[in-house]
Amino acid sequence: MTGGALARVIARPAAGPADDPDRCDLCGVPAEDGHRHLYGTGRAEVLCACRACALLFTRETPEAAGEDHYLLIPTRRVRLPPVPTEGLGVPVGLAFFVPRADGEVTAHYPSPAGATRWEVVPESWREVVDRCPPLRTLVPEVEALLVNTARGRQDHWIIPVDDCYRLVALVRREWRGLSGGDRIRPAIEGFFADLAERGEDARR
Questions:
Q1: Edge-to-edge, what's the strand order for the sheet holding 200-201?
Q2: Secondary structure of residue 198 in the 3-state scheme
Q3: How many CB atoms neighbour CB 174 within 10 A?
């Protein structure tokens, strides 16, 4: 889960001079501000895409290039009512769940070493989806259920996987010492504040 755009984000220092602008990972031209991302299924990586290349991947059938299939990552961000995730085996309060094209669901939680991953028991996932119908609309491979129940919060979101990757990079970059230090909590709160600003709220 560390390739393409994510690898570059992780490598960036927390402070200092700005890096060169992102470039399209397909054709190499500079990518516009707010550019779209693609998900390469073969190597499980997020790639930057310029406007022209993104237009090539707007079909429902994923385009193939060698062993990779490229999927255009959606941009919707939807805040959900509290989702009962107790049965999904989440060992921490911050995790995301990605349904796969083969029907499996992989769970990840950000850590200072990257993203820790495990497989969700299928029956447990079906129970959660039955209790939260909007989860049936998750697009396999490129959308996720994001859960934040740390410190009593109840944040549950449908988000694109590139947002998940940014969260992984943020935690890895801002973590200090054994407990995370004094920068990690404000950084995560800022991430969710940005979601609230850009997303829609399905709780109303």
A1: 114-119, 105-111, 94-99, 143-148, 155-160, 78-79, 200-201
A2: helix
A3: 19
CB under 8 Å to 31, separation ≥6 — which residues? 21, 22, 23, 24, 48, 49, 50
Two tokens, residue 56: 């090539």
Dump pLDDT digits (tens) for 68-99. 688 999 999 999 999 988 888 776 789 999 99
Q: Give the relative orientation of helices 4-11 and 161-174 as an angle to the nearest 10 degrees.
A: 20
- Residue 45's beta-bridge partner residues? 40
3-state helix, strand, coil in the chain (%, to 5): 30, 30, 40
In terms of Cα–Cα distance, which of 118, 112, 192, 127 is closest to 155?
192
Name the band, by pLDDT with cuts 50, 70 and 90, for residue 116: confident
Residue-wise DSSP of 110-174:
EETTEEEEEEPPHHHHHHHHHH-GGGGGPPTTTEEEEEE-GGG--EEEEEEHHHHHHHHHHHHHH
Which pLDDT score is estimated for 15? 42
Give yes or no for a contact between 73 and 161, defined as CB atoms under 8 angstroms apart. Answer: yes
